[in-house]
Design goal:
- Belongs to the glycosyl hydrolase 63 family.
- Keywords: Glycosidase, Hydrolase.
- One of its GO terms (molecular function) is Glc3Man9GlcNAc2 oligosaccharide glucosidase activity.
- This is Trehalase.
- It holds the Pfam family MGH1-like_GH.
- The chain is mainly α.
- It has one domain: Glycosyltransferase (Alpha/alpha barrel), CATH 1.50.10.
- About 50% of the residues lie in helices and about 5% in strands.
- It contains 18 helices and ten strands.
- It has helices at about 5-15, 35-45, 50-60, 85-90, 105-115, 120-150, 175-180, 190-195, 205-220, 225-230, 240-255, 260-275, 310, 320-330, 360-375, 375-395, 415-425, 425-430; strands at about 35, 75, 160, 235, 280-285, 290, 290-295, 300, 400, 405-410.
- The protein has a four-stranded antiparallel β-sheet with strand order 3-4-7-8.
- A hairpin with a 4-residue loop joins strand 7 (about 290-295) and strand 8 (about 300).
- Helix 2 (about 35-45) runs antiparallel to helix 3 (about 50-60), helix 5 runs antiparallel to helix 6 and helix 11 (about 240-255) packs antiparallel against helix 12 (about 260-275).
- The longest helix has 28 residues, at about 120-150.
- It is globular.
- The two termini are about 25 Å apart.
- The model has no long low-confidence stretch (mean pLDDT about 95).
- It binds alpha-D-glucopyranose.
Length: about 425
């Protein structure tokens, strides 16, 4: 397929996965609205329909809970082909049936992007107006992260479930997950393994624990303070932490443009706290940021693709920059396609199992932005070119093998299409140049 055919194909995937204002990640495997998927999808729509891009994010925020949380899944209509559905989550925190935790907060960053790219006259005013309407909701969501995912004020953000990280099956969760006692969860039937090859999906022992964490949160009625205090899983995640820190910088830029002085001051405080807090995640032996299990007090021992997001978060001191460049080159000498989700030199690395090795397009996009902003356009371009190659050969798959480039997981994936349109496509790169 030529690049312009691929552009067409990417557009048509977004249009086909559109459910009337929100987009499913892919039909079958993921039949609902997912939080960070939708936000990346907005970047894709923005390349041909700005209004539809805003709508995607606005619909996500329709599901915001009374306490400020924006859920990771909105179950707008029941679909028996997905497990665990709304009755297993048993939540009651917002206007739309939903899961009980959040996902990486990329929204403020993408909203800023939508405002920045819509630079002309009337359209820009309209974009700013829509950003203004979302602004208080973003503030509430960010305050929620600080209150309930960093209750001890460490300046890092924890996840209460591997799924909250968006990187569901990452080796970093293994040890903390093993410490979760399996609750009386009764028999259940997974649906994911009937949609895709079970050898690429999490194992049953993991699934039992995923459901046990949910049972523990249900037992406290998903009360956020109680969840933070008692959840058996509470791990500070470099992915969410860096995405949140970055999002705060973009939220600050919006606050300044919207004339929200008090909020701008509040956000500056968050940024300072998180910049200092990020040091908690630094692993001196590995020379990278890793996860930190707040229950056991232990750092994890592997470099994941999120370690590279330090640059995207604006942490660009010499040590971080030099270490990440060295890790980048080392990993590039091991695999053909960057950036594997886990270090290929680590014992837990598996090139095709969910989040234990495969490459995700939207992670590459964020890492590349970080490198580019830090002045390293060579490594940024390498990530873009690899992402484009993977899509040109494997199509708009959920993820890819870093070794062979084989497409894996679900097909006709929305965020892969969106990232192609907004960043990876050579057509786009030519326009941007
Ligand atoms: C998986 C991914 C998660 C994503 C969801 C829908 O659960 O790990 O990040 O949001 O699929 O694509």
């Amino acid at each position: 397929m030529s690049n312009s055919d691929l552009d067409q194909k990417a557009k048509s995937i977004l249009i086909e996965n559109d459910q009337g204002g929100y987009t499913v990640p892919t039909k079958g495997l993921y039949p609902y609205q997912w939080n960070w998927d939708s936000v990346f999808v907005a970047l894709g729509f923005a390349t041909f329909d700005q209004d539809r891009a805003w709508r995607e994010i606005e619909m996500l925020f329709e599901g915001q809970w009374r306490d400020g949380m924006v859920p990771h899944i909105l179950f707008r209509k029941d679909d028996p082909s997905y497990f665990p559905g709304p009755s297993v989550w048993g939540t009651n925190g917002g206007p739309i049936p939903s899961s009980g935790h959040s996902q990486p907060p990329v929204a403020a960053t993408v909203i800023r992007e939508l405002v920045d790219t819509d630079v002309t006259g009337l359209a820009h005013d309209r974009a700013l107006y829509r950003a203004g309407a979302l602004f208080p909701k973003l503030m509430q969501w960010h305050r929620w992260f600080l209150a309930y995912r960093d209750p001890d004020d460490l300046g890092v953000i924890a996840v209460i479930h591997p799924w909250e990280s968006g990187r569901d099956n990452l080796p970093d969760w293994d040890e903390a997950l093993r410490a979760v006692e399996i609750a009386d969860i009764g028999p259940y039937e997974r649906k994911d393994t009937s949609h895709v090859d079970p050898s690429m999906r999490p194992q049953k022992a993991d699934y039992d624990r995923y459901l046990s964490i949910m049972a523990a949160c249900r037992a406290v009625d998903w009360d956020p303070a109680e969840v933070a205090r008692t959840c058996p899983f509470f791990v500070a995640d470099p992915g969410v932490t860096f995405i949140f820190l970055r999002a705060n910088r973009d939220l600050l830029s919006l606050a300044e443009r919207l004339g929200r002085d008090a909020e701008a001051e509040e956000i500056r405080g968050w940024i300072a706290k998180m910049e200092a807090g990020a040091k908690t995640l630094w692993h001196e032996g590995l020379k990278a940021h890793v996860a930190f299990d707040e229950r056991s007090g232990k750092l994890t021992d592997g470099i994941s693709s999120a370690s590279f997001l330090a640059l995207y978060a604006g942490i660009r001191d010499e040590t971080t920059m030099a270490s990440l460049q060295a890790h980048f080159d080392r990993i590039a000498s091991k695999v053909r396609y960057l950036m594997p989700s886990y270090d290929p030199d680590h014992a837990s690395y598996e090139p095709l199992r969910y989040w234990r090795g495969p490459v995700w397009a939207m992670i590459n996009y964020m890492i590349a932005r970080g490198f580019a902003e830090a002045g390293d356009t060579t490594r940024a371009e390498r990530l873009r070119a690899d992402t484009a190659d993977l899509i040109e050969t494997g199509g708009f798959a959920e993820y890819f093998s870093p070794e062979t480039g084989a497409a894996a997981g679900g097909g006709t994936f929305s965020w892969t299409s969106a990232i192609w349109l907004s960043w990876a496509s050579p057509t786009h790169a030519e326009h941007a140049a």
